[in-house]
Design brief:
heterodimer; A: 89% helix; 0% strand; B: mainly alpha
């Protein structure tokens, strides 16, 4: 079971890392932040799987913090974008 | 009993990993920002949800299970809010292109 959980964590991380290509290609800033958002969620899933596989319960708390920070990233991004658009108008 | 629980874990975690794969493929292949957002939310909600469901069969205590569920609920809440905000930005971007 440990091997399976480790493999699943690695698979999720690799999948999400491939999604980071979207940060390079864009085209909009919203697309780029979406890839970062997917990395956040995938990171949480990998942390939860690792916590169970390696018997490190503290990793679940790290996942909880990551969930909180990933939400703040996008909210900060949206606030920044709307403020700069209001400034241009 | 342990074998049955392990089987359920494998099933749910595999399904969750599939949704992460689907989310990534959607993010890379879909034509516009709003449909990419749609693919992203599937990975967020279902992918993480199924991974958490699979891990629930493995944890020992009620407290650990509640913590896992709270991670998923926080992600659901954050995902729903953030998706609304990002969709507003993505829709505002379209006329400028």
């Amino acid at each position: 079971m440990v091997d399976f959980l480790l493999a699943a964590a690695g698979f999720v991380l690799v999948t999400v890392a491939v999604g980071l290509v979207r940060i390079l290609s864009g085209p909009g800033d919203a697309d780029r932040i979406m890839a970062a958002q997917l990395l956040g969620t995938g990171g949480i899933a990998a942390l939860l799987l690792l916590a169970q596989a390696m018997s490190v319960p503290a990793a679940i708390d790290v996942g909880l913090v990551l969930a909180l920070l990933a939400a703040f990233v996008s909210v900060a991004f949206v606030k920044g974008v709307t403020r700069s658009q209001a400034g241009e108008a | 009993m342990t074998l049955a629980l392990d089987g359920l874990t494998v099933l749910a975690v595999c399904a969750g990993a599939f949704f992460f794969l689907a989310g990534t493929v959607g993010l890379l292949r879909f034509p516009d920002a709003l449909s990419r957002l749609h693919a992203l939310t599937k990975a967020d909600n279902l992918g993480l949800g199924l991974v958490v469901l699979g891990l629930l069969f493995q944890v020992g205590g009620v407290l650990a299970a509640l913590k896992l569920i709270s991670v998923w609920l926080l992600t659901l809440l954050a995902g729903a809010t953030v998706t609304q905000l990002l969709a507003r930005v993505a829709r505002a971007d379209v006329p400028h292109d």
